[in-house]
Amino acid sequence: MRSFCLAVSVVVALAAATAAGAAWTVSRSGNGATASKTMPGAAPAAPTGSVSSHDVTVSWSASHFADGTNVPSYIVKRYDAITNALQTTLSACNGNVAGTTCVEHAVPTGSWKYTVTPAAGIWRGTESAKSATVIVLI
C-alpha cells in the first residue's frame, strides 16, 4: 500500500509540474497573451536626505521598467557614514516603500548615508550609490 501511495504521489507531482511548465509557454499572440517586464539594468541615482530634528526625509528619482512603467516599490537602506555598517531602517522607510520618498522617524544621533533599490515582488534591481552624509544631531 505504501508503494502504491508513493507511486501515485510521484505521478501527481509530475503531472502538476508538466502543467505548470506548460503555463509558461504561452505565445505572445491572441487571447491569453503574456509579456514579462525587465528590472532596470542601471542603478538609480543616489537618494537625497534632509533632516528635521530626528526625522530624515529620503527622496529619490523613480526607476522604470524597460517598457517605461514605474517600478512599484523600493528598498531603503541606511548605513553608518563612518563605519559603512548597515543599520536597521525605521518606520515608514522600512520594507518595500511605494513611491519615491519616505520619512524615517526617530533616527538616532549620528552620520548616515542612504541607498535605494528598485523592487517588484521578489525581484530586485541594482542598489543605488550612497547619498551624501546626513547628520542627525542631539
Order of helices and strands, N to C? Answer: HEEEEEEEEE
| Secondary structural class | alpha+beta
Low-pLDDT windows of residues: 2-28
Shape: elongated
Total strand segments:
9
Instruction: Give the helix tally.
Output: 1
Helix content: 10-25%
Write structural notes for this entry.
The protein has 138 residues and is of the alpha+beta class. Helices cover 16% and strands 31% of the residues. Strands 3, 4, 5, 7, 8 and 9 form a six-stranded antiparallel β-sheet that branches. Strands 1-2-6 form a three-stranded antiparallel β-sheet, with no helix packed on it. It is elongated, with a radius of gyration of 22 Å. The N and C termini lie far apart (72 Å).
Topology:
Blueprint: H1 2-23, E1 48-52, E2 55-59, E3 73-80, E4 86-87, E5 96-98, E6 101-104, E7 110-120, E8 123-124, E9 134-136
Antiparallel strand pairs: 1-2, 2-6, 3-4, 3-5, 3-7, 7-8, 7-9
Please outline what is shown here.
With 138 residues, the protein is α+β, with helices and mostly antiparallel strands. 16% of the residues lie in helices and 31% in strands.
